Amino acid sequence: MTKVLITGGAGFIGSACAKALMDRGDEVVLIDNFNDYYDPTLKEARIKKFLKGYKFKLYRGDIRDEKLVERIFKKEKINKVIHLAAMAGVRNSLLNPKLYLDVNVMGSVNLLEAAVKYKIKNFVFASSSSVYGNNKKVPFAETDPVDTPISPYAASKKADELIAHVYNHIYGLNVTALRFFTVYGPWGRPDMALMLFTEGIMKNEPIKVFNRGKMSRNFTYIDDIVSGVLTVLDKCTGYDVVNIGGDREETLTRYIEVLEDNLGKKAKKKLLPMQPGDVPTTVADIRKLRKLGWHPTTRIDQGIKNFVAWYREYYKVK
Ligand SMILES: NC(=O)c1ccc[n+]([C@@H]2O[C@H](COP(=O)([O-])OP(=O)(O)OC[C@H]3O[C@@H](n4cnc5c(N)ncnc54)[C@H](O)[C@@H]3O)[C@@H](O)[C@H]2O)c1
Question: I want to staple 206 with a disulfide (CB 3.0 to 4.6 A). Which of 52, 155, 158, 270 is the partner?
Answer without folding.
Answer: 270
